[in-house]
Design a protein that fits this description.
heterodimer; A: about 220 residues; B: alpha/beta; Rossmann fold; six-stranded mixed sheet; globular; binds adenosine-5'-diphosphate; binds magnesium ion; membrane (chain B); ABC-type amino acid transporter activity (chain B); Glutamine transport ATP-binding protein GlnQ (chain B); nucleotide-binding (chain B)
Amino acid sequence: MLPDFTEITAWMPDLMSGFKISLQVTFFSLLIGIPFGLVLALGVMAKGRVIRAISLFAVEVGRGAPALVLLQFIYVGLPSAGLMVGSFMAAIAALAWNTGAYTSEIIRASLLSIPSGQREAAEALGMKRLDELRFILLPQGLRVALPALLGFSILIFQSTSLCFTIALPELVSRAYEIGSITFRYFPVLLLAGLLYASISIPAALLVDFIEKRAGKFASR
Amino acid sequence: MIASDKTLIRLNGLSKHYGRLTVLDGIDLEVKAGEVLAIIGPSGSGKSTLLRCINYLEPPDGGTITVDDIVIDAGNPIGRAALSGLRRRVGMVFQSFNLFPHMSVLRNISLPQERVLGRSRKEADARSMQLLSRVGLADKAEQFPIRCSGGQQQRIAIARALALDPEVMLFDEPTSALDPELGLEVLAVMRELAKSGMTMIVVTHEMGFAENVSDTVMIMADGNIVEKGPSKEIMRNPQHERTKRFLRAVHDR
Ligand SMILES: Nc1ncnc2c1ncn2[C@@H]1O[C@H](COP(=O)(O)OP(=O)(O)O)[C@@H](O)[C@H]1O
Ligand SMILES: [Mg+2]
């Protein structure tokens, strides 16, 4: 059942190129998605009704729809509206939306966890809204949000495997491809799983470590 | 003690409601430049709301606020210039200090100077150190607020507000969250500030401060001014039944 050495060396180049695409999609989804989450968080907390409504809509759809549906929606739906998107772009758009929607809630909660007295003090000192956000709320809020954001990043990395449904040649697609040729599905998926684990497990340990440190920081 | 005859703050018919609850019922008030006004009264009488309306942390819904040359009419939406002008002239100190916990004491005092007044970091730090010395905490500059006692934190908060060179300082029960002996060090700083000629409005339960440091005392109840006058007269010889009852209650505590 286990892959032997010659199989591993034969499959590795394809698997690694898939792995690279998975990592790239993760990287860009987070790079776009987390700042988008911050924008959505601010939008949901904004005073203006229109901004709030649009932000809420984006958050609810991004959280409510399964990532698989978002992927299909963007990959299949947008071209029928006249907008061509490649599977790589579609994957990033869908996962960035998903990331933005979920992290907006994480970020919003962390901003709200900062005692309101600090905002009042900043306001009474005459600091501008943007300065208050930049110097008071974000540095503290992001510190609070960091473990949850990292945890979510691991989930997004794993979600890239869904992109095989839109013909993106990421890790799971490549593994299936090899399987369909060699009929050695189990060993090749096992290898793919190990590659996922090589990122997810150290990342999860890092989250634990940061959480413990954050706890110590808060209780000192 | 009052340095001049110039009226620095004038409130006309200031009112504030929360739903059906009238919290400020048309307050008329004048405070002269250099005057120290103590506001006392039972809890829930609208003292904090009054202070918070003066610097527009809480928008009033009727009346006018005049601070120096800034005039704000509650009937109209406030302009950006008026708001920043108001905030620049009015400093505020809160019961809960509200220092920024992720910054050093020095940064707490310097950052607002840089962002609000556009001072360079060097200028701001120099001013911060000068004020930290004035409140007796120069050695705490590099510490984080959490390493300071409550009394020290409140003195730092006072320095932070003073660093922006306000014309009037508002204090909302600045010693109520402190043990008595820590309150004393804050009161000492406030007394020195009063002597230096700063215009101050102080909501307090410290009857000694009201009687001996402030020039004027005002008693509030149910969103109204019950009486107001020179501090010694009011504290020793109150005219209104409401004031007498309140002072008796405080003494019995
Ligand atoms: N944000 C608010 N919403 C509703 N009611 C409030 C709010 N702030 C204060 N109040 C009410 O207004 C009244 C006056 O409050 P406050 O000005 O804090 O009084 P004081 O400082 O004299 O104790 C109280 O009855 C209080 O419950
Ligand atoms: Mg109060």
